[in-house]
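Sample intake — Sulfotransferase family protein
Collected from: Thalassococcus halodurans
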Amino acid sequence: MSVPDHIKGIAAATAVTVLPRLRFENSILVLSHMRSVSTALTHVLATHPEIWGYGETHVSYTDERAPGRLWLNLLRHHRSGIGRRLILDKVLHNDLDRAVTPAFYRARAVFLLRSPAPAIRSIQALSMAQGLADWQSPEQAARYYLMRITRLMHHWNHFPPEHRIGMLSENLMRDPEGALVRLSQFLPVSHPLKNRYVAEGREARHGAGDPTRSQDLTRIEPTDVDVDLSLPVGVDRKLAAHCVQAYLTASDLMDLAEHALNDRG
């Protein structure tokens, strides 16, 4: 039987009150869009002995009780990490972070962007395979992508520089070790992230990510892939161009073009 929302709210508020560590300052948020390789990255983060999480929890971030809601979700779905110092979530949808509490920007935010053509193609393919009605056409997937990138740029501008880091999915796939070194230097952890994760049982967990492949892997496999700035196929040309421009604007805002050149060179 599901717990009524008002009971969940009381429980979350109580958790935040009695557990001082349940603050945004002790939260790591992967802010991204669907099909960005965020599942693999989140699994790597969740394998670190100081980080408690498992994937996308679908917790909303409208008020300061959000860390309490996240803690309750983790307690329900991934109890084994309860003693860890930092709590982790992945946020991919605007309805969860559209009207956030100002405290949201005290978290550590990892922004992850994938170029539009492959992301939109992959969103549509997954939606078709899983029967997700919202994104089964290229146009639907493109509109989601554009709105999500726009929201991510808004969040980037509100996080203090020391609380945000931007990454390209293509860099993460091409050089996972280098990307994780950079991420380890950003996060408040006592030892570096390792490119490995435990897959056993993950496919049964709510919110664990891509059900088509992620449960079969134990690391981010290096892949020779480049940023693809072609117009997404099957999308109105104007909408497709807006998607590409939004990606370029976000990449420039997050200073990712320089990282792409440095990593490639």
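Post-analysis note: The chain has one domain: 24-49+104-264.
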